[in-house]
Design goal:
Layout lengths: L2 H4 L4 H7 L12 E4 L11 E4 L6 E4 L4 E3 L1 H9 L3 H8 L22 E7 L4 H9 L4 H7 L1 E7 L2 E9 L5 E4 L4 E3 L6 E3 L2 E8 L2 H11 L6 E5 L18 E5 L4 H13 L3 E3 H5 L6 H5 L7
Parallel strand pairs: 11-12, 11-13, 13-14
Antiparallel strand pairs: 1-2, 2-3, 3-4, 5-6, 6-7, 7-8, 8-9, 10-12
Helix pairs in contact: 3-4
Length: about 290
């Protein structure tokens, strides 16, 4: 592949494959993006695809060109490297850096954009977890955030305080504020899950998109004290926690508050660490 052929490939199509989507509805073949070359909240990166044009211009930096120029800047490579990337012959790292940011006590996750899940990397991850995209879309969002001025993206599951649990194949974290997630249903039955993938796995296994009972997703067992006061209000409590020491200890604490509690982990998925491992047939090592 040479530069002439590479520059004929759709820039918007290439951006879509790496999870970069327009921030505005295109008008007359002109697409507006939040620049993939830097951190911004107001879209100033334009791509023209009308007529014979297939070029981009970043108003924030005053630079532009064809697809080859863009790939050179995105991945800090020369023209030869760009052509290999465009041709799919060179392994690349997403321009949003790694999907596993280095988190320390001083790091701050700052969310700057959310959208319906469309990123091909996240879609593939969801399907690998045995969850349909339609179901995931009902309960999660595509989250774009920064850590130490670098961009990242993840699946986001919102809690009752407005914060998000963030997940990718290689990253597990959360933004502030941290808390439980309550999905309201009837007041007779309470279903408690450790994480949101356990909740989505239960819905998938049950072949439903919602449950008649109320659901609480702890998002971490450290949030357990936040639900103690609510437990006596329910006649039936079902627990879908991990089959590990932490999960079993959490079961005991809940049963001490409300004896009429069933540990569904021992009933439905014994021999599996959690509901998602059961759904995707990943038993515990013998």
């Amino acid at each position: 592949m040479n530069c002439q052929k590479a520059n004929q490939i759709s820039i918007t199509g290439f951006l879509s494959t790496i999870g970069v989507n327009p921030a505005k509805t295109p008008i007359n073949g002109k697409y507006w993006y939040c620049s993939p070359l830097r951190n911004e909240q107001t879209p100033s990166f334009a791509v023209w695809e009308s007529g014979t044009k297939n070029v981009w211009f970043d108003h924030g930096t005053g630079t532009g060109g064809g697809l080859v120029d863009l790939v050179c800047k995105l991945y800090n490579v020369d023209v030869t490297g760009a052509l290999l990337i465009i041709a799919g012959q060179k392994q690349i790292t997403n321009p949003f850096y790694s999907d596993q940011p280095p988190i320390s006590e001083s790091s701050k996750i700052s969310i700057y954009k959310e959208a319906t899940i469309n990123n091909s990397y996240l879609v593939r991850y969801i399907k690998n977890r045995g969850i349909s995209l339609d179901l995931a879309t009902l309960y999660t969002r595509e989250i774009y955030y920064t850590v130490n001025e670098k961009k990242y993206f993840a699946i986001g599951f919102q809690n009752d305080l407005g914060g998000y649990e963030l997940r990718t194949e290689h990253f597990k974290g959360s933004s502030s504020l941290k808390g439980i997630t309550t999905i309201k249903g009837n007041t007779h039955t309470l279903n408690i899950f450790e994480g949101f993938f356990d909740f989505l796995s239960f819905l998938t296994w049950s072949k439903v998109t919602e449950t008649p009972g109320t659901c609480i997703i702890l998002n971490s067992v450290v949030n357990l004290p936040k639900i103690y006061r609510a437990l006596p209000n329910y006649l039936n409590i079902n627990l879908y926690l991990d089959n590990d020491p932490s999960g079993r200890e959490t079961v005991k604490k809940i049963q001490n508050v409300q004896p009429y509690t069933k540990n569904q982990a021992e009933i439905i998925y014994p021999g599996f660490k959690d509901f998602n491992d059961f759904l995707t047939k990943k038993p515990l090592p013998v």
